[in-house]
Amino acid sequence: MTQNLSIHSNNKKYNVVFVETLVQLIETLSEIPSCITFVDSSIQKLYPGLVEKLSAHSSVYFVDATEENKTLRGAERVIQQLSAEKANKSTTIVAIGGGVVQDIVSFVAHIYFRGLKFIFVPTTLLAMCDSCIGGKCGLNFHGYKNQLGAFHPPEKVFICHDFLMTLEDDALYCGYGEIIKLLLIGDIEAYVNVKSQLLKSGIRNKNVLQHIYQGLVIKKKFIEEDEYDVGVRQILNYGHTFGHALELATQYAMPHGIAVVWGICLANYIAFQKGLLSKQNYEDVNQFMKHFFPMDGLKTVSSDQLILFAQQDKKSKEGKIMMILMKDFENFILEPVVLDHEVQVMLDSYFESYTL
Ligand SMILES: NC(=O)c1ccc[n+]([C@@H]2O[C@H](COP(=O)([O-])OP(=O)(O)OC[C@H]3O[C@@H](n4cnc5c(N)ncnc54)[C@H](O)[C@@H]3O)[C@@H](O)[C@H]2O)c1
Ligand SMILES: [Zn+2]
C-alpha cells in the first residue's frame, strides 16, 4: 500500500490519499456532506457504474476535457450548474478527471462565493503525479494557455490507480515525462531505478504507484518552499521552455508530457554545449529518452519554429528567455538565455544528432 502524503500550503494542510480500489473510492466520496460532483465526460463513458453510484449521494455534472472548454465559457457553464444547485459556502466541489477538469473546476471553486472547498480525484497519470498538488488553476484565454489563473489548494486528493487502466499509451508517456523531470530535479537514485524498470517492463508498469509517490514527494518540497512560484518552484519548469515551443510548433499534436521530455533533452544539450553539464550526464538522459519516449513529432519541427515560439514564452524578457538548466543531477540554475545564432546552431546540431 502506498503511503499518504501531507502537503503544507500557506493557510491549510491537505492530504493526498492513495485509495486501493474504485469501490473504496466510491465509499469515501459518498461520505462527503453537501457535495456537487463534476466528472470528466470520458470517465462518465468509461466508468458508468462509478457515476451511477455517486449519483445516489451527490448531484453529478459532466465536463468535456478539451482545451476549448478550459475557458471562461467552460467555467461559466460550471458556475451555472452550481447556481442551479443553489451551492453555498458549505458546499464541497468534487472534481474527477485529468488536468483540464481540475483546472476548470478548481478555478470556479476559487471564485464562487470567494472560495468553496475543492476535492480532487485525478484520473490521468499526469494529474496523479504532478498537477493534483500545488494548488494552481488555469484557464486559456483567446488561444493563450493558462493565461487566467489562481491558487486554490484542494481539501484533499484521492488517487485511485484503477483509472490508469483505460488511459492511452501516450497519456502514460506524458505522465512519465513529468515523473522523470521531477526525479532528475530531486531524487537521482529514484531516477536510476525508475529508468531501469521502464526499460525492462515498459510503459504499463506495475510499480506506477511508487513512481507517482516519488514524483509527488519532490514536487511537495518545491511547492511548500515557494507556493506562489516566485522562486525555487520555477525549477519545476525544467524542460518547459522548449516543451511549450514544441507543443505550439506541432499545433499540440505533440502532447504536453512528451514535449517536456524533448524540452529537457534540448535544454540539456544547450547546458552541455555551454560547458555547464557533463557529457556523461547529458548522454545518460538523452539515450534513455531516445530509447523510451515516442519521437515522431520531433521530426516535424525546425529550429526556426522552436526559436520563434520560445520567444513567445510568458517569462521572456528583452529577447532573453529564462531557462532552467541542469548543472548536475539535482543541481539546477535559472539562466537567462539569448536565442541568438549560437543557440540556433546548437538546436540544429541536436536535431542532426537525435536520429543517430
Ligand atoms: N493546474 C496545474 O497545476 C496543472 C499542471 C499541469 C498541467 N495542467 C493542465 O492539465 C491539462 C492536461 O491534463 P491531463 O494531461 O491530465 O489530461 P486531460 O485532462 O487533458 O485529459 C486527456 C484526455 O484523457 C481523458 N481521460 C481522463 N482520464 C481518463 C482515464 N482514466 N481513462 C481514459 N481517458 C481519460 C480526458 O477525457 C481527455 O480526453 C492541460 O490543460 C494543462 O495545462 C495543469
Ligand atoms: Zn508540465
Can you put this structure into words, describing what you see?
The structure is a single chain. With 356 residues, the chain is an alpha/beta fold. The chain folds into two domains: 5-166, Rossmann fold, CATH 3.40.50.1970; 169-353, Dehydroquinate synthase-like, alpha domain (Up-down Bundle), CATH 1.20.1090.10. It contains 14 helices and eleven strands. It has a seven-stranded mixed beta sheet with strand order 1-2-9-6-5-3-4, with helices on both faces. The chain has a two-stranded antiparallel ribbon with strand order 7-8. It is globular, with a radius of gyration of 20 Å. The structure holds nicotinamide-adenine-dinucleotide and zinc ion. Zinc ion is lined by residues 178, 240, 256, 260.
Blueprint of the fold:
Elements: E1 5-8, E2 13-19, H1 22-30, E3 35-40, H2 41-46, H3 48-55, E4 59-63, H4 72-84, E5 92-97, H5 99-111, E6 117-122, H6 125-131, E7 136-141, E8 144-151, E9 156-160, H7 169-186, H8 188-201, H9 208-225, H10 240-249, H11 256-273, H12 279-292, H13 303-311, E10 320-328, E11 331-338, H14 341-353
Zinc ion (ZN) is lined by residues 178, 240, 256, 260.
Short description:
This protein has 14 helices and eleven strands. The chain has 356 residues and is of the alpha/beta class.
